């Protein structure tokens, strides 16, 4: 995790999982390496013929190893793909047990939840189950809490900015969730710097809960956040939690140029 508000000469050095850091401008102590639970839960092959996810036993081994080393920061989401058919939150709910108080659980809302919400009969309508509206937030949040069998979310991200819901509706709705105890902290994922600046400025003047974290793509091949998101995060006191840090495995050396199948994702690297 990048700590923009606390850059020091030791920036970039390796840390143990129990060498906890403060997330953004908050008192929340998290491991410097967050465990992404995207692959928790077996799934059927996607459109590209790739089956994502691992079964419960394998997922639990990963979780237990991370926790045994002092890790406490877990990231998941409520969407069907690529978060293993929506099973990621369910698996985590079955793994947490008595360790709940020692964990910082992060999940997200915005993207369409209709695929994994119970449907009555043939009614497949889901127009209110996506986006950043207050209704979408309430429906998604309650469903996530139920799947993970917990009473509150430590860090709730907006998964993406959809340009339809007014900023003031988003920030006030999130603040209501914090004040009623269902959410402790708020973050945002893959959102422009100007939106975050506006949102946190509004929260400051209206005494609402501000964003403390930004999740965005960042690796050796994708460094565009350094242009505007990183300076904004430093100024606003946001912790940056990168995703795609090994570029879907391309920075590990396991892929060879002649074996890469052309897809929307690999096209950025080819």
Automatic annotation (TrEMBL):
Gene3D superfamilies: NADP-dependent oxidoreductase domain
MF terms in GO: oxidoreductase activity
Organism superkingdom: Eukaryota
Any GO CC annotation of this UniProt entry: cytosol
InterPro entries named in the record: AKR_Detox_Biosynth, NAD(P)_OxRdtase_dom_sf, NADP_OxRdtase_dom
Matches recorded under SUPFAM superfamilies: NAD(P)-linked oxidoreductase
Domain NADP-dependent oxidoreductase: residue ranges: 32-261
Keyword Oxidoreductase: yes
Keywords: Oxidoreductase
Entry protein name: NADP-dependent oxidoreductase domain-containing protein
Phylogenetic classification of the source organism: Eukaryota, Sar, Alveolata, Colpodellida, Vitrellaceae
């Amino acid at each position: 995790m990048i700590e923009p508000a606390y850059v020091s000469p030791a920036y970039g050095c390796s840390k143990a999982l129990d060498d906890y850091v403060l997330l953004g401008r908050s008192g929340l102590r998290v491991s410097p390496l967050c465990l992404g639970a995207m692959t928790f839960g077996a799934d059927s092959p996607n459109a590209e013929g790739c089956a994502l996810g691992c079964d419960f036993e394998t997922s639990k081994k990963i979780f237990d190893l991370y926790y045994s080393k002092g890790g406490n920061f877990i990231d998941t989401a409520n969407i069907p793909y690529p978060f293993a058919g929506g099973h990621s939150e369910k698996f985590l709910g079955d793994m947490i047990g008595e360790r709940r108080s020692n964990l910082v659980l992060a999940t997200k809302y915005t993207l369409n939840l209709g695929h994994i919400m119970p449907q009555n009969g043939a009614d497949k309508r889901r127009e209110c189950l996506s986006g950043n509206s207050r209704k979408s937030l309430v429906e998604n949040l309650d469903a996530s809490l139920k799947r993970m069998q917990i009473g509150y979310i430590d860090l709730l991200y907006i998964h993406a900015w959809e340009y339809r819901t007014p900023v003031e509706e988003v920030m006030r709705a999130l603040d209501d969730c914090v004040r009623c105890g269902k959410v402790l902290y708020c973050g945002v994922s893959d959102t422009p710097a100007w939106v975050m600046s506006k949102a946190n400025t509004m929260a400051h003047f209206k005494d609402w809960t501000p964003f403390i974290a930004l999740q965005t793509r960042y690796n050796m091949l994708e460094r565009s956040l350094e242009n505007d998101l990183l300076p904004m995060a430093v100024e606003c006191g946001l912790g940056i939690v990168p995703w795609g840090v090994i570029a879907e495995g391309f920075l590990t050396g396991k892929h060879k140029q002649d074996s890469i199948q052309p897809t929307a994702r690999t096209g950025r690297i080819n």
